[in-house]
Design a protein that fits this description.
Layout: E1 3-8, H1 12-24, E2 27-33, H2 37-45, H3 54-59, E3 65-68, H4 75-84, E4 88-91, H5 99-112, E5 116-118, H6 126-137, E6 143-151, H7 170-185, E7 191-199, E8 209-216, E9 220-227, E10 237-241, E11 244-248, E12 255-260, E13 271-273, E14 276-278, E15 289-294, H8 303-312, H9 322-341, E16 345-346
Parallel strand pairs: 1-2, 1-3, 3-4, 4-5, 6-9
Antiparallel strand pairs: 6-10, 7-8, 7-16, 8-9, 10-11, 11-12, 12-15, 13-14
Length: 357
């Protein structure tokens, strides 16, 4: 028998959840709830049952779990109320605004014996999965640098995402995705320091972009960057090792690897520039390098709902764990602390755990 769920918050992400839940067929959409009447009316027009109140949602004994797709500051109170009412809970990201809030939810979930997780849907992004494959393949040699970024030119959204009281800003909005992905790529090292610089180009209240550097054991440095005033975007991913380099230009691209066949190159032709010449920066040719393409994998984001339904029945372990949620939250908190200080901050990493995706 399919698990029944209700989406609380029927805005952009609420609509996304509704479409994908209906497409997946793994769970049944019992209905939606939103504080705005026009959104309830829209759901009704679409043939989706609209609950009259949140209290009615958690009182419905036929509902197995709820999906919280509200502004960020409401995640904690809604999650706790639903858990205490006997419902399992999926929260949109960021799961909460602080580790303190997250721990409070986890405590209630454990006490009530209910599942709680966050919707980290971008673990199914092809660009992330290709770079994760490149990192783990060993083909690039010892990895020293990874860069992950999303850049656009439309500024920060003009809705609640631009307000501090609602948990707005790009670290909470896009940063949480890219942090979660980076933690999924680098599973064999721990973070030692965090250095973050936030942008306030179009918004003084919250960050409208940031540059976040994570310093890992083994001299690995990773850059996570989000920009909202970039009319020319830098590559989506760039990964460099001692023996090769990989690049994903944008989210529609494949992953191109260029690897070293031999460090010995005695016949280097200098590059002549307008101001001189150089051997150091002379490009390599096919004699000393070779290329490989990591193709885009087949992915199905609906596996998130299938997994959650199976986890409720004890047939699977939930993909996004409490430990992973806490680690990402601690990185975000360290990023804000570093930006306020204007300097790197030490980071006490927690135990990592292997991921299935």
């Amino acid at each position: 028998m399919k698990k029944r769920c209700v989406i609380v918050g029927y805005g952009g992400m609420g609509g996304w959840h509704a479409r994908h839940i209906l497409e997946a067929g793994a769970v049944e959409l019992a209905g939606v709830y939103d504080i705005k009447k026009e959104r309830l009316d829209l759901a009704t027009e679409q043939g989706i049952y609209a609950y009259p109140s949140f209290e009615a949602v958690i009182a419905d004994k036929t509902v197995d779990f709820i999906v919280i797709a509200t502004p960020n500051e409401w995640h904690r109170p809604l999650a706790i109320a639903a858990l205490e009412a006997g419902k399992h809970v999926i929260s949109e990201k960021p799961v909460t605004l602080s580790t303190e809030d997250l721990d409070a939810i986890i405590e209630v979930a454990n006490k009530c014996g209910k599942l709680f997780t966050a919707h980290q849907n971008r673990r199914w992004d092809c660009d992330y999965q290709m770079v994760r494959t490149a990192y783990k393949s060993g083909k690039l040699g010892y990895i020293t640098n990874i860069e992950s970024r999303y850049q656009g030119s439309r500024g920060i959204p003009g809705d609640w995402r631009g307000k501090k009281e609602h948990g707005g800003g790009m670290i909470f909005d896009w940063g949480i995705h890219l942090i979660d992905q980076m933690l999924g790529i680098v599973e064999d090292r721990k973070i030692e320091r965090v250095y973050c610089r936030c942008d306030h180009i179009t918004n003084d209240e919250v960050d409208d972009g940031f540059k976040l550097d994570l310093y890992w054991t083994g001299d690995l440095v990773t850059r996570i960057e989000v920009g909202t005033t970039n009319f020319i975007a830098l590559p989506r991913f760039y990964i460099a090792g001692v023996d090769g380099t990989g690049i994903v230009n944008d989210w529609k691209d494949t992953c191109r690897l260029v690897m070293c066949r031999s460090w010995e190159d005695k016949d280097v032709a200098p590059v002549v520039t307008s101001a001189g010449f150089t051997k150091t920066m002379a490009p390599r040719d096919g004699k000393t390098t070779y290329e490989e393409i990591i193709p885009r994998p087949e992915v199905d984001v609906h596996d998130f709902y299938r997994n959650f339904a199976d986890a409720i029945d004890g047939k699977a372990t939930q993909i996004v764990t409490h430990n992973q949620l806490r680690r990402s939250m601690k990185v975000m908190e360290a990023a804000f602390a570093s930006d306020a200080l204007g300097a790197p901050v030490a980071f006490e990493d927690i135990e990592t755990e292997p991921r299935t995706i």
